[in-house]
Structure of 5'-deoxynucleotidase:
Amino acid sequence: MNSKRFTLFSIFLFLLKFVACLREESNESNNLQIWWKRSDIHGWNYRKRRVYNEFKESIADHMYRMALMALIADDLPGINRERCIKIALVHDIAEAIVGDITPSDGVPKVEKSRLEQAALNEMCEVLGGGKRAEEIKELWREYEDNASLEANLVKDFDKIEMILQALEYETGKFQTEIGKS
């Protein structure tokens, strides 16, 4: 699997394309946060105090940006792009109930997984169970277990999105003309 991971250069090129896409679509992406519970990502709440930023990324913001990454990524051999988009859209869905449990919270990984699984089950019950609920559970589990190339790639997108968000919180704006294009 490691041979299929992004190289540093390809990640850099992807980031440039993604930032350009976000700049062009900023109004639409900001409006889409309405579809999901406006739950702030906990780790950023803590960091917010240090960077004095008014905007806090919600879980919906985070998952939407990752889905956009999967949508605009170049085709990669052996990767199902549609599956990547779906995984990106559900990978942190349980956090809308349990919150963003970070390592600094001191919650053991086993307990974090149990809480998130219970929250996911509750959400799927609200959906009435069935085929779509089972698909959501399957996609979430695939991501959690890093069980496919698609899940592995989405985990890479998760790290890239975190870096982009940290950059935005730290600077509040793009510092170069490249980021503005």
